[in-house]
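Saturday, quiet lab. Running sequence design on the structure tokens for the scaffold JK sent over.
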């Protein structure tokens, strides 16, 4: 792909993609509604290309993304959390009022929105008809298919607006887009999605939605679906190109069915617009081809001083809701992420790094801030104005840019600009009262510098809000840590009392069992008493761990897995399974299987898994327990312990407790037990796989490291 024009690249970086005010108002109200669910938020965000693109971009940013890409709205919203979503919605609302962009004046956002939503709804309908396995992905690709238009409008302005109006009436004019603007909105949209690091097929669907019919037939299914969706909206029904793609697509659909799907999508889009209180464009479902009416007379010139005062006070008032939202964020990490995204939305500053003051308050460091170039993580800049523009901004307590100084830049500033891939730097001091919190370092181009000259007072106020919010988050964290220490001390004291009191009856029970053992004949149940005594020792050890007074919890030793399981079945099979009418089937090797693991941890894992199965199953159901030896995984030797049942199955949320232990709601015993299993398994190097289907059953397999010294006796 060739290099995009500079103005378009700047527009992509700033991601200035407006949303209809009705959508923003509904989102803000929904976030404030305590009864609203994440599904309610997803229902709003998933209907607007601007919001959807913003949420996708932030959720897949380095600060939040952990491994796999997030490419559906629900998962992205969960990753962000409601507080950060509230902050983003506020920023978008502020940005809409902040300073109207002349390049977007006269653009009919409702027309763009209705067209994008219609293509998204139609793409999902086509995907369903074609049995495409991911219809929601098709919807998202359709919703974003024209996102490049708004980026181009933001970059080019009036010439591109007139081009869109002409091409809406004659789609074949789109072939002239590259000649006129050195790129196309489809290419820009694909570039934007690639920049978020999402699946390339999603970007392909956006980039190829105006490809020639012969070309689109050589693509995969999703680009073909998006091509058909936009063609059915923009081209006449009897266009040969549409029939050619329908007949040659990689999936089977009938044109009559597609026309029905289109009518359903049109009706669905009308219903959504009415529910949001948006007026339908008079040309819907076609796009408008005329310019909206312009004012007949230019506004009267104002007093420059009054204009400046109005701008200053207006900026302070507009930023006040942002400060309230930032105060509600739960950690300095959330605040830092919200600040970076706020700078992008409010000031079109897409490249933002943050340095925080050290504990002594005499240097700036990026060590505690994630999601930014490595250079910033390594920095420690003394607070001397001569060392860097960042330090000068803090010392002089004012916004500074590299374009304002006639003096040569220190090499460090050149390094920072290179790290941000920018021409220069904008440094915003973050000062909370008399305390230095840090500095925001933003990559800046010459064009951006010119646009931001009137916003310097707002930038300074934004820096103060950032400082106060970070200071509050850090103070709250210090308070939480202090409370945690006090609670830990209180818990430790109570735990010692509990361990002491519990130790007395447990010791008495053990003494009684020894007396009983001596009274029994050799073959009269001594093995059962030995297992019971061992279990009492394990309970004492668990209680002892509450105060960390007992040792040996993490020390593994050789033991026979089959022997431990048989002992456990002898002790617990009746209580957990047989008395509940649950059948137990076992498949164990004839000889012992040696593993090296802490015995108590193994027992706790097994008991929790059996207890989970027992609580989930009803009479007549079956639990199968099997052991397989000599399992090779990644070149290592394991023993597999597998527990299968034909019960009700588990939800994905419960299964995740095995891999991501977290706080479990009161009463959710099954999730709590699995969380304990997951923690102990990681401690012992045990690998876990879990397969479960609701209404069918669950299978959990543990790969336990094998002891290579031979079979245990």
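Result came back. Writing it out in full:
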């Amino acid at each position: 792909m060739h290099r995009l024009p500079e103005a378009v690249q700047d527009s992509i970086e700033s991601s200035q993609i407006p949303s209809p005010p009705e959508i923003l108002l509904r989102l803000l109200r929904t976030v404030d509604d305590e009864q609203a669910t994440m599904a309610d938020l997803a229902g709003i965000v998933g209907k607007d290309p601007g919001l959807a693109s913003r949420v996708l971009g932030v959720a897949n940013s380095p600060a939040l993304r952990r491994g796999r890409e997030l490419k559906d709205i629900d998962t992205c919203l969960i990753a962000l959390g409601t507080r950060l979503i509230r902050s983003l919605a506020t920023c978008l609302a502020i940005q809409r009022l902040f300073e109207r962009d002349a390049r977007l004046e006269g653009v009919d956002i409702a027309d763009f929105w209705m067209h994008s939503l219609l293509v998204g709804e139609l793409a999902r309908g086509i995907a369903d008809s074609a049995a495409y396995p991911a219809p929601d992905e098709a919807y998202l690709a359709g919703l974003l298919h024209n996102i490049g238009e708004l980026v181009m409008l933001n970059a080019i302005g009036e010439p591109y607006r007139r081009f869109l109006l002409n091409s809406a009436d004659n789609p074949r004019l789109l072939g002239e887009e590259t000649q006129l603007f050195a790129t196309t909105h489809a290419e820009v949209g694909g570039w934007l999605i690639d920049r978020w690091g999402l699946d390339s097929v999603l970007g392909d669907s956006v980039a190829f939605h105006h490809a020639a019919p012969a070309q689109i037939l050589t693509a995969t299914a999703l680009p073909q679906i998006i091509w058909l969706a936009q063609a059915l909206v923009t081209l006449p029904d009897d266009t040969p190109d549409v029939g050619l793609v329908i007949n040659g697509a990689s999936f089977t659909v009938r044109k009559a069915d597609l026309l029905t799907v289109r009518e359903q999508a049109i009706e669905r889009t009308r219903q959504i617009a009415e529910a949001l209180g948006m007026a339908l464009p008079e040309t819907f479902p076609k796009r408008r081809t005329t310019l909206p009416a312009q004012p007949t007379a230019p506004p009267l010139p104002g007093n420059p001083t009054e204009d400046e005062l109005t701008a200053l006070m207006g900026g302070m008032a507009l930023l006040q809701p942002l400060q309230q939202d930032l105060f509600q964020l739960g950690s300095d990490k959330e605040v830092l992420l919200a600040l970076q995204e706020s700078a992008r939305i409010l000031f079109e500053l897409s490249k933002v790094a943050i340095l925080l003051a050290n504990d002594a308050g005499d240097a700036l460091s990026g060590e505690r801030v994630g999601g930014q170039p490595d250079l910033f993580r390594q920095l420690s800049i003394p607070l001397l104005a001569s060392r860097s523009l960042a330090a000068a901004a803090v010392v002089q307590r004012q916004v500074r840019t590299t374009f304002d100084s006639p003096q040569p830049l220190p090499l460090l500033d050149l390094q920072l600009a290179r790290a941000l891939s920018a021409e220069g730097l904008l440094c915003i001091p973050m000062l909370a009262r008399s305390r230095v919190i840090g500095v925001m370092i933003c990559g800046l181009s010459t064009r951006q510098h010119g646009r931001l000259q009137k916003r310097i007072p707002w930038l300074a106020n934004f820096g103060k809000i950032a400082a106060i919010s970070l200071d509050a988050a850090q103070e709250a964290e210090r308070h939480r840590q202090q409370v945690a220490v006090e609670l830990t001390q209180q818990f430790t004291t109570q735990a010692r009392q509990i361990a002491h009191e519990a130790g007395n009856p447990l010791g008495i029970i053990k003494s009684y069992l020894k007396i009983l053992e001596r009274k029994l004949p050799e073959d009269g149940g001594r093995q059962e008493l030995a297992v019971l005594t061992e279990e009492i020792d394990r309970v004492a050890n668990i209680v002892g761990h509450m105060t960390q007074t007992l040792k040996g919890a993490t020390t593994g030793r050789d033991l026979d897995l089959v022997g431990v399981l048989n002992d456990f079945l002898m002790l617990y099979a009746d209580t957990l399974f047989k008395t509940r009418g649950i059948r137990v089937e076992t498949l164990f090797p004839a000889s012992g299987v040696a593993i090296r693991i802490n015995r108590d941890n193994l027992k706790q894992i097994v008991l929790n898994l059996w207890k989970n199965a027992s609580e989930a199953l009803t009479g007549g159901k079956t639990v199968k327990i099997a052991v397989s030896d000599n399992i090779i995984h990644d070149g290592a030797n394991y023993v597999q312990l597998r527990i299968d049942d034909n019960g009700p199955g588990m939800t994905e949320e419960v299964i995740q407790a095995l891999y991501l232990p977290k706080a479990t709601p009161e009463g959710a015993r099954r999730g709590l037990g699995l969380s304990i299993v997951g923690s102990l398994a990681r401690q012992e190097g045990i690998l876990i796989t879990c397969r479960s289907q609701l209404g069918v059953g669950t299978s959990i397999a543990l790969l336990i490291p094998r002891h290579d010294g031979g079979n245990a006796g």
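Notes for JK: The first helix runs from residue 6 to 14. The mean pLDDT is 78. Ask whether to fix the surface positions before the next round.
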